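Observation: inputs received (chain + heme C).
Thought: call the complex predictor directly.
Action: predict_structure
Action Input:
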Amino acid sequence: MRKMAVALLLALLPGLALGAGGGQKLMDAHVDVTDTASLQRGAKYFANYCMGCHSLKYLRYNRMAEDLAIPENVLEQYLLWDGSKPHEPMHTAMRGADATEWFGAAPPDLSLTARRRGADWVFTYLNTFYRDDDTATGVNNLVLPGASMPHVLWRLQGVPEPVYGEAANGERHVTGVKVADGAGALSEEEYHRVTRDITNFLAYAAEPIRAYRERLGVWVLLFIALFTGLAYMLKREFWKDVH
Ligand code: HEC
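Observation:
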Protein backbone atom coordinates (compact mmCIF):
# COMPACT_ATOMS: atom_id res chain seq x y z
CA MET A 1 0.00 0.00 0.00
CA ARG A 2 2.77 2.39 0.95
CA LYS A 3 4.77 1.44 -2.11
CA MET A 4 1.74 2.19 -4.24
CA ALA A 5 1.31 5.61 -2.68
CA VAL A 6 4.96 6.46 -3.29
CA ALA A 7 4.77 5.28 -6.90
CA LEU A 8 1.65 7.36 -7.44
CA LEU A 9 3.33 10.43 -5.96
CA LEU A 10 6.41 9.97 -8.15
CA ALA A 11 4.22 9.61 -11.20
CA LEU A 12 2.37 12.81 -10.36
CA LEU A 13 5.33 15.03 -9.51
CA PRO A 14 6.62 15.80 -13.03
CA GLY A 15 3.05 16.51 -14.06
CA LEU A 16 2.73 19.09 -11.33
CA ALA A 17 5.94 20.83 -12.36
CA LEU A 18 4.85 20.93 -15.99
CA GLY A 19 1.33 22.04 -15.07
CA ALA A 20 2.75 25.10 -13.33
CA GLY A 21 4.64 26.23 -16.43
CA GLY A 22 2.02 25.33 -19.00
CA GLY A 23 4.49 22.89 -20.57
CA GLN A 24 7.12 25.58 -21.02
CA LYS A 25 10.55 24.73 -19.64
CA LEU A 26 11.27 27.03 -16.69
CA MET A 27 14.50 28.92 -16.06
CA ASP A 28 16.31 28.41 -12.77
CA ALA A 29 16.08 31.48 -10.54
CA HIS A 30 18.71 30.24 -8.04
CA VAL A 31 16.70 31.72 -5.20
CA ASP A 32 18.65 32.43 -2.02
CA VAL A 33 16.63 34.23 0.65
CA THR A 34 19.72 34.59 2.85
CA ASP A 35 21.32 36.87 0.22
CA THR A 36 20.32 40.14 1.90
CA ALA A 37 21.99 42.40 -0.66
CA SER A 38 19.97 40.74 -3.44
CA LEU A 39 16.75 41.08 -1.40
CA GLN A 40 17.43 44.77 -0.78
CA ARG A 41 17.92 45.40 -4.49
CA GLY A 42 14.81 43.34 -5.21
CA ALA A 43 12.76 45.46 -2.78
CA LYS A 44 13.97 48.64 -4.49
CA TYR A 45 13.12 47.34 -7.97
CA PHE A 46 9.76 46.13 -6.73
CA ALA A 47 8.93 49.57 -5.28
CA ASN A 48 10.05 51.28 -8.51
CA TYR A 49 8.62 48.99 -11.16
CA CYS A 50 5.84 46.87 -9.68
CA MET A 51 4.09 48.56 -6.77
CA GLY A 52 2.27 50.98 -9.03
CA CYS A 53 0.05 48.01 -9.86
CA HIS A 54 0.78 45.14 -7.45
CA SER A 55 0.45 44.94 -3.68
CA LEU A 56 2.08 42.66 -1.12
CA LYS A 57 -0.76 42.83 1.35
CA TYR A 58 0.62 40.24 3.78
CA LEU A 59 3.90 42.10 4.25
CA ARG A 60 4.34 45.21 6.38
CA TYR A 61 7.00 47.79 5.52
CA ASN A 62 8.62 47.71 8.96
CA ARG A 63 8.76 43.92 9.01
CA MET A 64 10.47 43.96 5.63
CA ALA A 65 12.89 46.72 6.71
CA GLU A 66 13.85 44.69 9.77
CA ASP A 67 14.30 41.41 7.88
CA LEU A 68 16.31 43.01 5.08
CA ALA A 69 18.35 45.31 7.33
CA ILE A 70 17.05 48.43 5.57
CA PRO A 71 17.77 51.54 7.70
CA GLU A 72 14.78 53.70 8.65
CA ASN A 73 15.86 56.74 6.63
CA VAL A 74 16.32 54.62 3.49
CA LEU A 75 12.89 53.04 4.04
CA GLU A 76 11.27 56.45 4.31
CA GLN A 77 13.08 58.00 1.39
CA TYR A 78 12.80 55.19 -1.15
CA LEU A 79 9.93 52.94 -0.13
CA LEU A 80 7.39 55.10 1.66
CA TRP A 81 7.27 57.88 -0.94
CA ASP A 82 3.50 57.44 -1.35
CA GLY A 83 2.85 58.54 2.25
CA SER A 84 2.38 55.02 3.66
CA LYS A 85 3.28 54.45 7.31
CA PRO A 86 5.97 51.89 8.30
CA HIS A 87 3.47 49.62 10.09
CA GLU A 88 1.14 49.41 7.08
CA PRO A 89 0.96 46.47 4.66
CA MET A 90 2.43 47.09 1.22
CA HIS A 91 -0.69 48.15 -0.66
CA THR A 92 -0.69 49.51 -4.20
CA ALA A 93 -1.99 52.95 -5.00
CA MET A 94 -4.08 51.57 -7.85
CA ARG A 95 -7.74 50.77 -7.36
CA GLY A 96 -8.85 47.33 -8.51
CA ALA A 97 -11.74 48.75 -10.52
CA ASP A 98 -9.48 51.18 -12.42
CA ALA A 99 -7.03 48.40 -13.12
CA THR A 100 -9.69 46.12 -14.56
CA GLU A 101 -10.79 48.93 -16.84
CA TRP A 102 -7.23 49.71 -17.98
CA PHE A 103 -5.77 46.23 -18.32
CA GLY A 104 -8.82 43.98 -18.56
CA ALA A 105 -7.60 42.17 -15.43
CA ALA A 106 -6.78 43.46 -11.98
CA PRO A 107 -3.07 43.01 -11.18
CA PRO A 108 -3.11 40.25 -8.53
CA ASP A 109 -1.58 40.66 -5.09
CA LEU A 110 1.88 39.07 -5.31
CA SER A 111 2.32 38.06 -1.65
CA LEU A 112 1.97 34.35 -2.31
CA THR A 113 2.73 34.15 -6.02
CA ALA A 114 6.26 32.78 -5.58
CA ARG A 115 4.79 29.94 -3.55
CA ARG A 116 1.74 29.29 -5.69
CA ARG A 117 3.51 29.47 -9.05
CA GLY A 118 7.05 28.75 -7.88
CA ALA A 119 9.98 31.18 -7.96
CA ASP A 120 11.32 29.70 -11.21
CA TRP A 121 7.98 30.42 -12.86
CA VAL A 122 8.12 34.09 -11.76
CA PHE A 123 11.72 34.38 -13.03
CA THR A 124 10.78 32.81 -16.36
CA TYR A 125 7.71 35.06 -16.60
CA LEU A 126 9.85 38.20 -16.23
CA ASN A 127 12.24 36.88 -18.87
CA THR A 128 9.82 35.68 -21.54
CA PHE A 129 7.81 38.69 -22.63
CA TYR A 130 7.96 38.99 -26.42
CA ARG A 131 6.68 41.32 -29.13
CA ASP A 132 3.12 40.52 -30.26
CA ASP A 133 1.33 43.22 -32.22
CA ASP A 134 -2.02 41.47 -31.86
CA THR A 135 -2.35 42.21 -28.15
CA ALA A 136 -3.42 45.45 -26.46
CA THR A 137 -0.08 45.72 -24.63
CA GLY A 138 2.02 44.95 -27.73
CA VAL A 139 3.59 41.98 -25.94
CA ASN A 140 2.76 38.43 -25.01
CA ASN A 141 4.32 36.01 -22.59
CA LEU A 142 5.57 32.44 -22.92
CA VAL A 143 4.42 31.14 -19.54
CA LEU A 144 1.28 33.30 -19.26
CA PRO A 145 -0.11 33.44 -22.80
CA GLY A 146 -2.41 36.42 -23.32
CA ALA A 147 -1.10 38.14 -20.16
CA SER A 148 -2.64 41.58 -19.73
CA MET A 149 0.47 42.92 -17.98
CA PRO A 150 2.64 45.21 -20.11
CA HIS A 151 6.39 44.46 -20.29
CA VAL A 152 7.16 47.02 -17.58
CA LEU A 153 10.92 46.31 -17.67
CA TRP A 154 11.24 46.91 -21.41
CA ARG A 155 13.56 49.88 -20.97
CA LEU A 156 15.99 47.62 -19.15
CA GLN A 157 15.66 44.52 -21.33
CA GLY A 158 14.37 45.85 -24.63
CA VAL A 159 11.43 44.02 -26.20
CA PRO A 160 12.42 40.44 -27.12
CA GLU A 161 11.38 38.99 -30.48
CA PRO A 162 9.54 35.66 -30.57
CA VAL A 163 11.41 32.56 -31.73
CA TYR A 164 9.21 30.12 -33.64
CA GLY A 165 9.29 26.36 -33.57
CA GLU A 166 7.06 23.64 -34.92
CA ALA A 167 4.66 21.76 -32.69
CA ALA A 168 4.07 18.00 -33.14
CA ASN A 169 1.01 18.75 -35.31
CA GLY A 170 3.10 20.91 -37.65
CA GLU A 171 1.71 24.22 -36.39
CA ARG A 172 4.10 27.13 -35.95
CA HIS A 173 4.17 28.49 -32.43
CA VAL A 174 6.42 30.55 -30.19
CA THR A 175 8.96 28.40 -28.37
CA GLY A 176 11.42 30.99 -27.12
CA VAL A 177 12.38 34.65 -27.08
CA LYS A 178 15.44 36.49 -28.32
CA VAL A 179 16.65 39.98 -27.41
CA ALA A 180 18.73 41.87 -29.94
CA ASP A 181 22.03 43.19 -28.57
CA GLY A 182 21.65 46.71 -27.28
CA ALA A 183 17.83 46.65 -27.43
CA GLY A 184 17.60 47.69 -23.77
CA ALA A 185 19.73 49.60 -21.28
CA LEU A 186 21.09 46.39 -19.72
CA SER A 187 23.01 43.43 -21.08
CA GLU A 188 21.31 40.04 -20.92
CA GLU A 189 23.38 39.09 -17.90
CA GLU A 190 22.53 42.33 -16.05
CA TYR A 191 18.84 41.89 -16.83
CA HIS A 192 18.97 38.34 -15.46
CA ARG A 193 20.46 39.71 -12.26
CA VAL A 194 17.74 42.36 -11.89
CA THR A 195 14.94 39.85 -12.48
CA ARG A 196 16.61 37.34 -10.18
CA ASP A 197 16.73 39.99 -7.41
CA ILE A 198 13.01 40.73 -7.91
CA THR A 199 12.20 36.99 -7.90
CA ASN A 200 14.33 36.49 -4.79
CA PHE A 201 12.48 39.34 -3.11
CA LEU A 202 9.10 37.82 -4.01
CA ALA A 203 10.28 34.43 -2.67
CA TYR A 204 11.19 36.19 0.58
CA ALA A 205 7.82 38.02 0.64
CA ALA A 206 5.95 34.73 0.16
CA GLU A 207 7.54 33.38 3.34
CA PRO A 208 9.33 36.10 5.32
CA ILE A 209 10.30 33.65 8.03
CA ARG A 210 12.06 31.21 5.71
CA ALA A 211 15.67 32.27 6.33
CA TYR A 212 15.05 32.28 10.09
CA ARG A 213 13.28 28.91 9.92
CA GLU A 214 16.19 27.34 8.06
CA ARG A 215 18.73 28.81 10.47
CA LEU A 216 16.69 27.69 13.46
CA GLY A 217 16.28 24.21 11.96
CA VAL A 218 20.01 23.58 12.20
CA TRP A 219 19.99 24.42 15.91
CA VAL A 220 16.91 22.27 16.51
CA LEU A 221 18.63 19.29 14.85
CA LEU A 222 21.80 19.90 16.87
CA PHE A 223 19.74 20.07 20.05
CA ILE A 224 17.93 16.83 19.23
CA ALA A 225 21.25 15.08 18.54
CA LEU A 226 22.73 16.34 21.81
CA PHE A 227 19.59 15.46 23.74
CA THR A 228 19.50 11.95 22.27
CA GLY A 229 23.07 11.44 23.40
CA LEU A 230 22.27 12.67 26.91
CA ALA A 231 19.12 10.56 27.15
CA TYR A 232 21.06 7.49 26.06
CA MET A 233 23.75 8.07 28.65
CA LEU A 234 21.10 8.60 31.31
CA LYS A 235 19.35 5.36 30.31
CA ARG A 236 22.61 3.44 30.59
CA GLU A 237 23.18 4.92 34.03
CA PHE A 238 19.67 3.97 35.26
CA TRP A 239 19.76 0.41 33.91
CA LYS A 240 23.31 -0.31 35.08
CA ASP A 241 22.14 -1.72 38.43
CA VAL A 242 19.08 -3.52 37.05
CA HIS A 243 21.04 -5.89 34.78
C1 HEC B 1 0.96 48.51 -15.31
C2 HEC B 1 0.55 47.62 -14.27
C3 HEC B 1 1.53 46.53 -13.86
C4 HEC B 1 2.82 46.69 -13.45
C5 HEC B 1 3.60 47.98 -13.27
C6 HEC B 1 3.30 45.36 -13.14
N1 HEC B 1 2.32 44.43 -13.37
FE1 HEC B 1 2.46 42.44 -13.00
N2 HEC B 1 0.55 42.19 -13.69
C7 HEC B 1 -0.28 43.20 -14.13
C8 HEC B 1 -1.54 42.61 -14.55
C9 HEC B 1 -2.74 43.38 -15.10
C10 HEC B 1 -1.42 41.22 -14.34
C11 HEC B 1 -2.48 40.14 -14.64
C12 HEC B 1 -2.07 39.45 -15.90
C13 HEC B 1 -3.10 38.45 -16.37
O1 HEC B 1 -3.51 37.61 -15.57
O2 HEC B 1 -3.47 38.52 -17.56
C14 HEC B 1 -0.09 40.99 -13.80
C15 HEC B 1 0.42 39.73 -13.48
C16 HEC B 1 1.64 39.49 -12.87
C17 HEC B 1 2.14 38.20 -12.46
C18 HEC B 1 1.42 36.89 -12.64
C19 HEC B 1 0.63 36.57 -11.43
C20 HEC B 1 -0.11 35.30 -11.59
O3 HEC B 1 0.06 34.43 -10.74
O4 HEC B 1 -0.86 35.17 -12.56
C21 HEC B 1 3.38 38.40 -11.91
C22 HEC B 1 4.31 37.34 -11.31
C23 HEC B 1 3.65 39.81 -12.00
N3 HEC B 1 2.58 40.45 -12.59
C24 HEC B 1 4.83 40.38 -11.58
C25 HEC B 1 5.13 41.72 -11.74
C26 HEC B 1 6.41 42.29 -11.36
C27 HEC B 1 7.55 41.53 -10.71
C28 HEC B 1 6.35 43.61 -11.69
C29 HEC B 1 7.45 44.63 -11.55
C30 HEC B 1 8.68 44.32 -12.24
C31 HEC B 1 5.03 43.87 -12.25
N4 HEC B 1 4.33 42.69 -12.27
C32 HEC B 1 4.58 45.12 -12.68
C33 HEC B 1 0.00 44.55 -14.16
C34 HEC B 1 1.21 45.10 -13.81
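Thought: report the result.
Final Answer: The CA atoms of residues 125 and 202 lie 13 Å apart. Confidence is low (pLDDT under 50) at residues 17-21.
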